[in-house]
## 1
Amino acid sequence: MVRGTTYPCRRADADGGMPGVQAWSVAPANLCVSAQGGPAVAVVRLHSFAGNLVEVPEGAVERFADELRGRLIQPVDPEYDTARAVWNGLVDKRPGLIARCADSGDVATAVNFAREHDLLLAARGGGHNVSGIASCDGGLVVDLSPMSAALTNPATEIVRAQGGVRIADLDQATQPFNLAVPMGVVSETGAAGLTLGGGFGWLFRKHGLSCDNLLSAEVVTSDGGTVRAGSKPSEDPDLLWALRGGGGNFGIVTEFEFRAHPVGPDVFCSLVVHAGADAGEALRAIRSWKETIPDEVASLAILMYGPPMEGFPQEYVGRPVLIHLATYVGDPDEGERVLAAARALGRPVVDLSGRRTYLELQEFFDADYPAHELRYYWKSRFLTGLDDALIDTIVGLSEAAPSPRSTIDVWPLGGAMARVPAGDTAFGDRSMPYMLGIEANWENAEDDDANIAWARDVYERTGAYSDGREYVNFPGFYEADELARSTFGDNYPRLVELKRRFDPQNLFRLNHNISPTG
């Protein structure tokens, strides 16, 4: 036998019964017989973080599985395809191993295994990141999705949550006390990735970004150790600074401690629809209205094709429209009064405004973003303004979208999130008045090229109106080499130093990567 030669391989059946015989294929993590000048041994072939194949002895994989309180899933297991699936249906990666972790000890065990065997490693919280970084081909996925508990202390308004918690889990833990942690606008989103990348939602103008409300975190670092990031004397304040917007570059967060705020149970929402022909006029009106609103108001203007939703005028279904959704996160009666101006902007064709529970608001967009079904490619821009030329450009680009599910979203910023100095968190500069979300959403694989090209065209044609920064949670596939450097700006050198301290070998590289070499 010679090195690199492969032979029929014996692998244990998923139920632990008699092993079967299966030939080597290109799929990762096959158990094969290999030799390097000595007796034949069974090995599992995985991918290193450099992209090479690594032969890991079968016994080492078995010991890894035995050390986990959770479950180690391999390609032969019946639940493999379910376990490897992430939210974005465009992402179809085949990990070599998936460690379904039960606790932080499992996460540390998995990190140690990856480091010791030089394996490509992906960390999965909710698996919702549009870029698909929660998975990898041929490497090890450290899956925290079973770790989804959240506990609220209503007296202190502090919430403790495990690393796999989703927004829905947080909302269910906080709303019984009429509290909420500032999070995103789709309840199936994982809180970990959202928070580590910033976190925009309905509360950011009143209470800041998700990362601004992170009080402390338990982090498993690349050496398998555990560090508490926080502001207490026994905690690491520099790591907390980095986690507030710096992403998953520094370790895997197994527990978050968040500040919650009084919200709900009801809020008032202004929801009006404008015809596509009036979209430019509506955006100009929203631009002026934005300068008058209190911090309690957050809004989102969505250029799209009319959806077949309840109450939506049938004559506008499938036609270009602008939907303006604004929320007042305070007393609903006061919200109805304050948002009367939003409802009067432009010439709306229908007004669907009214009271909703905060939970209903958080779930409002869920049906539009089904897991595993649609294909998604999103980009973003922070905008220096919303001038007339830009408005005309994005209205036309929206109408040219190849998929009726795609949207161009205008997020008016400001409020509490904008008052945090750039150097106070890794997230950095907050001075831009708007964020542009570019969402290509479609159904069929044969339409991949057209939809990705459309999103990239929107991104390129709006560059002149941006400061060059992007929202790292809407990153495409992280194909922009300078994304981290341009987005973090003056904070980048400090982040590089912290990367060298906590992850000098760049084990945690599947993200908007901050290289330890700078």
## 2
Amino acid sequence: MSLLTVYGAPEGFDAALIARRAGETAGGVVHAARDDARLARLAEAIGFFAPEIEVLRFPAWDCLPYDRVSPNGSVVAERVATLCRLIEAPRGPFVVLTTVNAAVQRVPPRDVFAAASLRLTAGGAVEPGRLLGFLDAHGYHRAGTVMEAGDYAVRGGIIDVFPAGEPAPVRIDLFGDTIESMRRFDPDTQRSSSPVSELMFRPASEVPLDAESISRFRTGYREMFGPDAARDPLYVSLSEGRRHPGMEHYLPLFTGAMDTLFDYLPGASVSLDYQAEDAARLRFELIEDHEAARRAPPRPGDLPYRPVPRARLYLDDASLGAVLAHRPGFAFSPFARPEDAAGVEAGGRPGAILTQGAAGASVFDEFRGMAQRWQGSGRRVILAAWSAGSRERLAALLREHAMPSFPVASAAEARATPGNTILLAVLGLERGFIADDLVVVAEQDLLGARIARPPRRRSRADQFIADATEIAEGDLVVHQDHGIGRYDGLVTLAVDSAPHDCLRIIYDGDGKLFLPVENIELLSRFGQETAGVALDKLGGASWQARKARAKNRIQDMAAGLIRIAAERKLRDASLLTPEPGVFDEFCARFPYTETEDQARAIADVLEDLASGKPMDRLICGDVGFGKTEVALRAAFVAAMSGTQVAVVVPTTLLARQHFRLFAERFAGLPVKVAQLSRLVTAKEAGAVRAGLADGSVNIVVGTHALLAKSV
């Protein structure tokens, strides 16, 4: 990808440039961000700098390539809503914000969505069967209670639907074929709110499930994978018209030819985030690795996975370059243009705006002086806070330092405000910038690095049930006294001549338990996998016997853990300590700055290695939080001290990825890194085992194959 580079465009300033470009281009602008976090910040920034620009978001699926699970319904709904909006052709200036991962993934052709819509109006008419048929054929899921995008529920003449692309679900009240009313409602409280006069239904899935597309899938699946594939659970489910987890990864078999996002934007200008090309390269490697892992023969007992060739689902580097070759486009860089580099200088300033002031001077004193100079040159000064609460705190701090401030919601409002006032905006920027008539100072420029801990969102998959709306009819639940049953909805019983709401739970033999709603804490979810699960018998002894066996197993496990812990305390281990110079050089190969938690974990692990006792430590962290770097440094210390290291991972794909990373980080050092998994040929596996036996292999990365008796 060879695009014109725009230098000196830090985060925030690039959003202003994208908005300006959208106003000048009739066909709109599509911008590919590095990741979802950048996409969200860009959408917020464009809304601030140019609220008149229509921003359409096109996120990537939130699952891995060739996964056995489907993408989240809300993500798919947003993608489909954007594609349908592009088919309608926005009349004003617009920007499509996407990510690199989404841009390299193919999408259904335009004709899949061109006629796939249904418009309803209050007071109009719709046959209930036609509405429900549309919902079933276009990816909507029937549920007991509507909670998420793509859900619908039917209760007599009332149909609750959460339409794709809409901010809230809608309650449709039908009298025969007449739509008496449509009102939005809160999915948490189920209470109706504002009326809706007109509603447009769009598909909630990228996979069409009408008779024609299912027939096309069946034919294509057998032709691609052979007649034996007709026994696959995926094929059987879809042949019967039932949705199946992960079916989206077979999208080309439903639609035939596939398009790209850029095909929906024939006249659009393209722009790329800083480091977008690196993100694309990593994505291509990940797709290739996942396809190779899926093509490997399954282990005994595993369900087969037959991957669609990646060229049908994804672009590669060459095809992406061909798509972008004839489009006007540019790439952003936050850094100033080197003297020998071609490109355009945008005029923004990278990095922090404020510098350390005179001794004893506070940063706010320095900020006041600089703000006065900027205002004297005719610029408006905007202080960008991360949240409304941060804006209030900053306003209080500015008052303490005799600086008047005023909240603004957009750049246009800032330009219309008197120039001697500090303008406070809610705008999530890491660093500020200087433009022609604006100076934007980020909260971090003033106060330094922030610590943000987003609140944990309660998931419907959480184990314990707090409210009846969290479960749908047909879900498996576990009563702490009676065992596994199937939830069959809410019923009202007359108890002592008074109505009482109860949850009806069905057990084996058609036994029924009516649980008062105030005792719902006795229930918990069974789990994700429910196929083939047997219900318990109400009043039977099987559940109590199972609980007793589980308690005994827990006691046995606890006794075993105590015994192992005691043996660890009594046993001595080798003293493993790093050589300062060489270890520092190895650490310098880490391309990022260690976080505080990461640095503490590394220090604790090195202390364990040097303690002379067996290590017993668990490092916990979410994806991308740097756990692998902790393992790399521990492996370096152990290998350079003369011991062998085994890195055990759960899948062959992770084995390949970790092997590449370890080999890259240990390149040039007297350490041999090898890989052992079922993807390694028998000859290579034999050589690795021999190397482990004679000590020539220092670090081995592998799956449970490392635990075999032959190693």
